[in-house]
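ok so i was messing around last nite and threw this chain in just to see what happens. nothing serious, just curious
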Amino acid sequence: MSTPRNPAAAPTLGHSLKHLAIHLITPLLMCLGMALAYLGAFHQPEPHHLKVAVVGTTQQAQGLAQAIQGKAGDALDVRTVADRAAAEQQLRDRDLVGAFVPDARNPELIVAKGNSETSVVAATAVFTNVTDRQGVPLHVTDLTTPAEGDPTGQGLFFLLVALSIGSYASVAVIGAAGAGLSMKVRALVGLAVSLAVSVIGIVTAGPVFHVVDHDLAAVWALGWLYSAGIVLIGIGLHSFLRKWTTLVIMVLFVMLNFTSSGGIYRPELQNGFFGGLHGFWTGAGFLEGARSVLYFDGGAGLGGNVVTLLVWLLLGGAAVVAAAMYEGRGRRPVETPQEAEEEMEEAVAV
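result:
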């Protein structure tokens, strides 16, 4: 004999729809945020003060530089450099995107694709127009050597994506499943997780796919700094934001992070907002630091990139300390098993 159902125990249609609507807020906000961020950053790449040079001190070279600048306006920043050696040095310092060597029969554009292939494409288009009017082909010389497994130079960006996902997905798990642990223990677990994330990243990018073919230790160290900053910030914010932590972390380390990292377009091809973020956002610190290590012998601004990563790590430490103080006042969040399970499922889903 079956047990009769209790109508009072069953949720009403209105209650069920309200519960569903509340849970749909987060994915809809993510959809809106991703659309605004990615379309805003990538929908119309145009040069903005793209730094190029004409090699030579003759009146002809200076006149060519002035003519290109006059026609391009703010799209280009055209200068002249004394000779080829000076041009190559500025390219290795990442102060130039391309340097044009005029020649009636064999004009040449010197570039460093390790800096950004999309920026090089833009510079090549500029000087191809010049050589087309001469009726001669443009010869392009790349000063950098791409890794065996990364001929387009995009592999480091996908390493950034892997490190980011491993880091921010761990935040919700530590915050929810580790809610019974002290903040100190959660922070130590977070550092251990970030170590594991960075090791997974460098092993797959290095020996497995050969995107990183030398200086593995240096790139790994940058990856650990990057991952640890994300994890500590997330752990700290979780005490205050709880179920909204995943959305906020997505905004900080996906929507604003990937778009400003320079992995697809560097600042000279983006609008002012995302180009401005590139100067101090953590993803740009990792990606540009890794590029400097792999393609520019550890120069070209590596120190500044390391400082950027350290600042974000310190922000993570500050967030953890603030959360520990907050919880120490008896405000430690207590989640029901259902809330914890929903939060972990949401983190894994994104």
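not much to say yet. The longest helix spans residues 13-42.
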